[in-house]
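REQUEST FORM: STRUCTURE PREDICTION
Request ID: SP-0412
Submitted by: Lab K.M.
Chain count: 1
Length (residues): 304
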Amino acid sequence: MGFFRVLRINPMDRGWSGSKMPGRSIGPPDAVGEDTFEGFDTRVLELKTVFIMKGNLGRTRRFSVLSVTGNGQGLAGFSLSKGSEVRSALRKSKNRAGQKLMHVELCDNHTVFHDFFCAFGKTKIFVSKKPEGHGLVCHRAIATICKVVGIKNLHAKIEGSTNLQNIVKAFFIGLLQQKTHQELAEAKGLHVVEFRKENGNIPHVVASPHSVRKPEEIPSNENLDFSQYVMGDRIVLKKKKFPPFYHGTKGHDLYLRKRENLRNQVKVRLDMLTHYGELRSFQTDKYPECRPYKHKKEVDEADA
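STATUS: Completed
RESULT:
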């Protein structure tokens, strides 16, 4: 009798937990005639053993596979298939997912258009739009779907059941029900204006309707809160952030006092001008040519 040797897997091909199948890539779906799935990638979300009772064979074991496929550009699909063997179940799920593709609109090719709420069964998902560089902060199944769809920045919070099939169905329902900026503007008859912290909260009009309503045409009882409108009149409970336990202590106050002149760029510049009389760094003595350029008028005024 021999012994079973565990196959070594490339770290890039590992799934969610070690050598288990969920989270691993099984390649693109098989070609259908002349139609090939170039650029597609299929990820396994769930692989489990199920049993059925037959009259002539008794208790029969089968394998159930839930997978999602996509091209990373807004085209994706998912499917649930079963087979008597793992390989046949994986191939059947992969090909069936390729036959049920759905188009998802992406905002700036990296995130969703707005926050939204979606649910299926007892699973509730609150999805938030995030700026570029934030990353995927969500359940690992949602993160896998986002990578396949092409979403790079997102925050999602799940409440209730964490059943994988419910999560996948609810998230796809939310993606398909979201509205583009132009659709939101046409539905409300108002401009869609965006405020971003990285742009200094300067208003930026992202969409305008064909006919804009005047202030007297807007009824007084109409809800004009954008977040409530896109969330379906729901309000997300945000917990209050309490200060840390060391806030207000003598040592923390002393630390804040020492860091006062390093809090932002403007105060750093003022501190340098106060102590050194110029803007400099720790390499200014080594590379004197890197000092900020001064106009001749400023030099003459300083000499005078």
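NOTES: The mean pLDDT is 87.
Reviewed by: T.R.
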